[in-house]
Amino acid sequence: MSATHTEDHQQHPIGIYFKIWILLFVISTLSYMVDYLEFQGYLRWSLILIFMILKAGLIVSVFMHMMWERLALIYAILLPPLCLFVLIGLMSIEADYTFLMRFIYFDIS
Amino acid sequence: MNSSVQHDSPEQGLRGAVDDWSSDQDAFKKVPWGKAMMWIFLLSDTFIFTSFLTGYMTVRMSTTVDWPIPSEVFALTVFGVHVPLLLIALMTFILITSSGTMAMAVNYGYRRDRNKTFWLMMATCFCGVCFVGMQAIEWTKLIEEGVRPWTNPMGAAQFGASFFMITGFHGLHVSIGVIYLAIVAFKVRRGDYEKKGNYEIVEIAGLYWHFVDLVWVFIFALFYLW
Question: B36: nearest CA in chain A?
């Protein structure tokens, strides 16, 4: 089992890691530029999220070899975190409510 | 081996539960157990860090006091030039570099090039130590400015709590990763894995390291840039 596995991995040329490395550098520079050029509002937030997802995708798929794994493992690892969006959604509703209560009842001057 | 016997007359009770869980079933074909287990650990760690980041989102959305502007808080003045977020950008590049060297170490491990694997892993460790060192500088700077987990002179008190909690937990992961990688690197150099010719352990250690980099991507975007 391990022998075939080893052979699978020897097939990736080292160059792909260099390319992804450079790509990650470029995307990081771009996301830094978002701050440096002081983009604001929805443009800023959407750019930050796009660059974040691109970087995360490259790291998981290439550096962590996810793109060469079998679908059983990919699903087992990548699907469960999706339920975290429920937590994020609930907590953002809760945070809005707390903010509203504080706004009404705190003495904000 | 005698799985047919087990299936014909399955045991009852606790014994049966143990038998069922330990029967020869293999969901992750061609994936060594160590790697599957590391992935499952990383999945649990994903939940931990997402909980932290969600907590940060909640306190930031619900505070009525102004949130400090991160690019101002973490700005540095170098040779009289005011550069926003400089230290954080450097930390990001260092961590990406360490991820790159680690990916190559895994590749050379599978090629059984022990020397290159060892030195690439050492380079990864060095980057990790630099990262933690820069984080220590950053913490010192903020603590000197009076930021504490319960208060913050620049605005919302929750900023301090989120900052120390999230970056502290991430820094702890980096520190543990450096120790872990150093141990594996020395075992590679000593030839511990030569007998079996199995360098999967390098890949498993690498998975942990890449995850630490992955978490930083989210912290960088959501805490420092937002």
Answer: A73
Query: Which residues 25-64 of chain B have a CB within 8 Å of chain A?
Result: 27-32, 36, 39-40, 42-43, 46-47, 50-51, 54-55, 57-64
Chain B CB contacts of A108 below 8 Å: 64
Domain B32-225 has CATH 1.20.120.80: yes
The DSSP line for chain B is: --HHHHHHSPPPHHHHHHHHHHSS--SSTT--HHHHHHHHHHHHHHHHHHHHHHHHHHHHHH-SSPPP-HHHHT-EEETTEEETTHHHHHHHHHHHHHHHHHHHHHHHHHTT-HHHHHHHHHHHHHHHHHHHHHHHHHHHHHHHTT-BTTB-TTS-THHHHHHHHHHHHHHHHHHHHHHHHHHHHHHHHHTTTTTTT--HHHHHHHHHHHHHHHHHHHHIIIIII-
| Nearest residue to A17 (alpha-carbon basis) of B12, B59, B96, B30 | B96
Q: Could you read off the pLDDT tens digit of each residue along chain B, which spans 226 residues? A: 454 444 567 788 888 888 877 777 777 878 888 999 999 999 999 999 999 999 999 999 999 888 988 888 888 777 777 888 888 999 999 999 999 999 999 999 988 899 999 999 999 999 999 999 999 999 999 999 889 999 888 888 899 999 999 999 999 999 999 999 999 999 999 988 888 888 899 999 999 999 999 999 999 999 999 8
Contact B91, B176 (CB under 8 A): no
Q: How much is the ipTM here?
A: 0.88
